[in-house]
Structure formats: structure tokens, C-alpha cells
Predict the 3D structure of the following.
Amino acid sequence: MEYIEVAIKIPADKQEWFDILSAQLSEYDFESFVQSEEALLAYVKQSKFNSENLDAVLSINSFQYQIKNIPQQNWNKVWEENFNPITVKDKVAIRAPFHASFDSYPYIITIEPKMSFGTGHHQTTQLMILQMLELDFNGKSVLDMGCGTGILAIFSSLLGADDILAVDIDEWAYENTLENIERNNIDNIGALCGDASVLCGKFDIIIANINRNILLQDLSVYKSVAKADSVLLLSGFYMSDHSTICDAAEKEGFQFQKLMEDNNWVSALFILR
């Protein structure tokens, strides 16, 4: 399977567009994003690439870009050259197998993302981790929707969760999650490939780092699989979308509790009442 790489030149005075474009392109089946010094590298399966959608996103602000085919087997070299380890609050370290160890950190997650989205660099993942550090996961059942590389599912296990289900609609993300679960020696995470329609059972904590439209679409499903007093932790949307997300969540019985924000990205915590 071949991918398309779109290299988008980002001017020095428009650094905020790294995140904005990543979010916008993810709406058009772009799966992975790598930030280099002067460009955003965006990847989409060749079969799903639509030049008109790309032009619609980039022409508004006149971004220059180049397109090339990239075989799947070349991805390891691409991300390895650009993937630096991430640390969160001196407690959580996210590293690749070739990085040095972080023995002083209580929580260490090792991932090899390949073509899956979710290296931990994006603000939304780090916001979710910060929120999760303040929750009690001991003995809880957890659902991780849009699991990507499995970072948040793995972190849930490290925090003491009893059983975890990781779900992603992308087959490559699903397979990569299975690999990273094994890589981190985790034995209490199950994984499914699909959307919210595959869900069953009940969960104490539901985490979903996806995007605004999918979150709004699936809130009713999240309620159907939530236990009484369940925690719902959402991210993947902007501050400008927060009121819309809150209104929709509260219609399903989720009461807003707490907000975290970083560079206009938001993570919101709710409780089902």
C-alpha cells in the first residue's frame, strides 16, 4: 500500500498552522503528521487522496506544498528522523525503541508509530495525559476511542485500570496498537477495528481524542456504554467548539467538570449523572 506525502511549507510567523492544518486535513483521511523545521509533512493513503480537498484547505491561506508518493516501507525512516521523545510533567515519558531510557519517570510508554497517527507530540494527547494523571484509574474499566498508536490505552493500564478496550476505525492504527500493547508488556487491553458501532459492555472511564464532528456524532453511543457516574474525557477540538461539545454532552446527561487548554486545543472532562 502506497501513501501520498504532502509537504506544506509553514512560514515562521504562522507556526500555529501546524496544528490547525493537521486538524483540517484529518477530516479528509490524512492519517499521520510530522512536523519538520519548516514544513508539515502530511500522509494519506493513495486510494483516499483527493486533490480538490487538499486545495480547499491550503488555497485559502496560500500555503505552498509539494506532493510525492511514498511507499509504506519507507515510513520508518521518515518518522525516526523526526520523532523525538516526549515528557509530560516529569511523570510520563513517551519514547521510541531507539531512544534512551527514562528510568526516573514513573510512567514510560514505548511506541513505534509507523503509519499510525499519534506519537504523543500533539497538544491534545498531552492534554489528555494531564487530565488522566488527576483521575483514579485503579480497578476501572476504560474505553479508548480513536486509539491511534494506543498511547492512552497503555497509559490507562499503567495508571492501574483493570480492563481496557482500544478502538480505531483505521486498520493500520488497530494493528499498530496491538504491536505497541505487546511492546509495553500489557496484558489487559483488548483492541477492535471499527467505529462506535462495534462497542458493547459498560465502562467507568471513556476517553476519546478524535475530532469535533465524530465526538458530536457518537456522544449518544458513549452514554449507552457508560456506567453510572462514568467519566467522559474528550479532546481533539478547539476552544471555539467547546460550548457546542458541552451542550451536546449535557443533553446526553454528561455534566461538564473541567477544562484544560493549550494553544487553542481543548480537553474537557465530564461526569455522567
